[in-house]
Design goal:
heterodimer; A: 202 residues; alpha/beta; Rossmann fold; 4-stranded parallel beta sheet; 7 helices; B: 540 residues; alpha+beta; Beta Polymerase, domain 2; 2 domains; 5-stranded mixed beta sheet; 3-stranded antiparallel beta sheet; 40% helix; 19% strand
């Protein structure tokens, strides 16, 4: 099965092995015809209308604005409805450095996102801490506190790179099982179990 | 200057003098407040430009730069704390409003407590942070300060250190808000704060009573990181402070290092730097305008502004290879020669800018809704601008005619003709209009230079290993937001002992409370947008 998005030839993706391994994992567990068809329908709808949460801490956020403006125009892909409330968003583009003081707030935003939810770590800082890796106050990647679906490197990534990252995400959404037994969701549960939010004040 | 020295020496016999870039005063803590008052009253040094915390290894202390708001003279004062365990200094909050927030920063990073500052809480770091990270003996063990996922306790009281008549210091507790205040939390994740800024806002109905500012949601510890890097390695951080003034910031740091090395920058590099600075200023003002208008609900303006911004980014990208974090300035000049069609591209830009500016004014400035939202909102007086160390378009639109390009000229700016855009209203509309006029002036500067880029080297010859002599240097440039300063203290090695980025946005954030009191809560967005602070520049 060739998983791709609109107007992007399958050969042009850089990491097809990864998506193929996901596909074979999906096929291995087998599925009912009706549920499988429903999955396809739901995933088709979801993957073409991913709504991002307006969330940016630094430089990458400016490129995210450029992505929304006329030149790069993410509306072409169905992602233009950037929501300010996490309750209405599908995925969170962590654009920028995440520091110690911000970490609980980021985690809360993630917890507030409605299921199904995804995370893109956008830019060097969110991927690994980037140039600020050695700082006393910077997280070495948002992967420390959130389960990340797509990593998008760059400092900041060009809007084209961001488009590629969100397309990758929509490709991952396409091969998800909506009704139970979804490979991705299982690993996420485990992640959240290992990274509990301790006693909450405020 | 000699006159100042004589008078001060008469008044304060304890003060030691030195002559560096500016007149340098070395004063014991007991006389610091009196000296500051005397400098302000008698000599007109009414603008506290920078208050820099320092750890000299054995002693902690502060370095202050004071500016005379009329003659633009600068003076440096150094104050030492007497011990490391329980360091105390006297606060100058009652003389300079901006000192309140500066001193909190020093307390946060160095643990120096200021006697008389009414608010001695953490500013950038969490309340439960262990240690003072900028001290040289700070324990970096990650187990002391792990990534905590619980929310920190919000403090409702703050502490003030007061000196009794017997010289003993005791603490006084203050409530931040009155008991029956209705407090709304805005941020850190809010689409209109232009980044991660948190404001606890006390409101009465729709009217703002007080704003309590929380910073540090993007505090990356850049200054501390610089202490472990060599000089050329530090330059790229400046691009990531105020990413809309990237080239101007790195210009500042490079000039500061060049000044210390006594390096002559080739004329061609100077001209290129100047053009790049002005392109960057256009870029900064365009984005500020676009996002501000979007915050007010005029989304169309964002698209108009970004259209021109993309044109500028194209020009910059062709030469530097990046859209935002350019890393283009280097010690001694610039890294790359300008692209082949740089000159023709810039000329095209100069052709479209006047038309575009006309369009912005037609679409937005004269609009009745825009007028109602901006006129008379958030009025800043020139005295408050000086007091809160507000610089840049915000200060000039309030009537303080201060522009670093004229006040402390650098690069080739003295040769250029441009007007310092000054207005008198001081409200949001004035700040908005001032930016548009400044864009015209930037175009005017570029037009003077674009046909006159001289031939020659783009970078001076620099040694492979760059060592600065022992000493300290302070350099400022005018960025799109205001006076950006760079302070280096060197002990003669390849990396700085202390590097401080004195950011204009920090002071702009400090004035928000003053400007918003008595305004409506919706005006907070207007005021924040027209002040145009960039949060990573506030937090560093």
């Amino acid at each position: 099965m060739e998983v791709t998005t609109k107007s992007m030839p399958y050969e042009d993706w850089k990491d097809n092995e990864y998506i193929e391994s996901l596909v074979s994992e999906l096929k291995a567990s087998g599925t009912n015809v009706i549920v499988g068809s429903l999955d396809k329908l739901i995933n088709w709808g979801r993957s073409n209308s991913l709504w991002p949460l307006t969330f940016a801490t630094s430089c990458c956020g400016i490129e995210f604005i450029a992505l929304g403006a006329a030149r790069y125009d993410m509306a072409r892909f169905g992602w233009e409805v950037a929501r300010s409330s996490p309750r209405q968003a599908d995925f969170m583009m962590v654009a920028g450095t995440i520091v110690h003081r911000m970490a609980p707030a980021v985690r809360r935003l993630y917890d507030q996102l409605a299921e199904p939810k995804y995370v893109i770590a956008c830019g060097g800082c969110a991927v690994s801490g980037g140039p600020f890796k050695n700082s006393y106050h910077v997280l070495k990647g948002v992967g420390e506190i959130l389960p990340v679906d797509v990593y998008c490197p760059g400092c900041p990534p060009r809007p084209e790179a961001m488009i590629y990252a969100i397309m990758q995400l929509s490709r991952k959404v396409k091969i998800e099982k909506f009704f139970g037994g979804v490979n991705r969701k299982e690993s996420r549960k485990e992640f959240l179990k290992n990274h509990p939010v301790s006693e909450t004040t405020n | 200057m000699a006159n100042i020295q004589e008078t001060i020496a008469g008044q304060f016999p304890e003060v030691e003098f030195a002559q560096g870039e500016t007149l340098e005063l070395n004063v014991p803590d007991a006389k610091w407040h009196d000296l500051a008052a005397s400098l302000k009253e008698a000599f007109g040094f009414d603008n506290l430009r920078a208050l820099i915390g320092m750890d000299w290894g054995e002693q902690l202390g502060i370095v202050c730069y004071l500016v005379n708001s009329k003659t633009y003279e600068m003076i440096r004062v150094k104050v030492l704390a007497d011990n490391r365990e329980e360091p105390f200094l006297h606060s100058v909050t009652d003389l300079f409003a901006v000192a309140g927030i500066y001193e909190r920063e020093v307390f946060d990073f160095y643990g120096i407590k200021f006697i008389g500052n009414p608010d001695m809480r953490h500013l950038f770091l969490r309340n439960d942070w262990v240690g003072y990270p900028f001290r040289k003996d700070y324990d970096t063990n990650p187990e002391l300060n792990p990534v905590r996922l619980n929310h920190e306790e919000t403090q409702d009281t703050t502490v003030e250190y007061v000196e009794g008549p017997d010289g003993k210091i005791h603490t006084v507790e203050h409530a931040i808000f009155a008991p029956d205040d209705f407090v709304v939390n805005i941020g850190p994740q809010h689409p209109a704060t232009h980044g991660v800024l948190r404001l606890r806002t006390a409101v009465e109905g729709e009217t703002i009573k007080k704003i309590d500012l929380y910073l540090g949601y993007i505090h990356r510890g850049i200054e501390k990181l610089c202490e472990g890097l060599t000089y050329p390695q530090t330059i790229h951080f400046t691009d990531r402070l105020d990413y809309l003034g990237a080239l101007m910031n790195s210009h500042c740091l490079c000039m500061c290092i060049e000044k210390a090395m006594q390096l002559e920058v080739p004329r061609r590099a100077q001209v290129i730097r100047c053009i790049m600075d002005e392109l960057m200023r256009l870029n900064s003002h365009l984005l500020a305008m676009g996002t501000f208008c979007m915050d007010l609900g005029a989304t169309t303006m964002l698209f108009y502004a970004l259209r021109e911004r993309e044109t500028i980014l194209d020009i910059l990208e062709k030469t530097t290879g990046a859209r935002m974090t350019f890393n283009y300035n280097c010690i001694g000049g610039v890294r790359q020669d300008i692209a082949e069609d740089f000159v023709s591209d810039v000329k095209k830009l100069l052709e479209i800018m006047p038309k575009a500016i006309k369009e912005y004014n037609k679409v937005f400035t004269g609009n009745i809704i825009a007028k109602n939202r901006m006129e008379g909102v958030g009025v800043l007086s020139p005295e408050a601008a000086v007091d809160y160390n507000v610089t840049g378009p915000a200060a000039r639109s309030a009537g303080w005619n201060y522009d670093v390009r004229r006040a402390q000229p650098y690069g080739i700016y003295p040769e250029l003709q441009f007007d310092v855009v000054t207005r008198t209203e001081g409200d949001s509309m004035a700040r908005f209009k001032a930016r548009i006029t400044e864009m015209e002036q930037s175009c005017r500067i570029i037009a003077q230079l674009i046909d006159n880029i001289p031939d020659g080297e783009i970078c001076a010859k620099v040694p492979k290993v760059i060592k600065l002599p022992e000493g300290h240097w302070f350099q400022e440039v005018e960025t799109g937001k205001g006076a950006f300063g760079c302070y280096i203290e060197s002990t003669g090695t390849t990396s700085p002992w202390r590097m401080k980025f004195n950011s204009p946005c920090f002071c702009l954030a400090g004035v928000v409370d003053h400007l918003t009191r008595g305004q409506k809560i919706a005006d907070l967005i207007t005021i924040g947008g027209t002040l145009d602070y960039i949060v990573p520049d506030i937090d560093r």
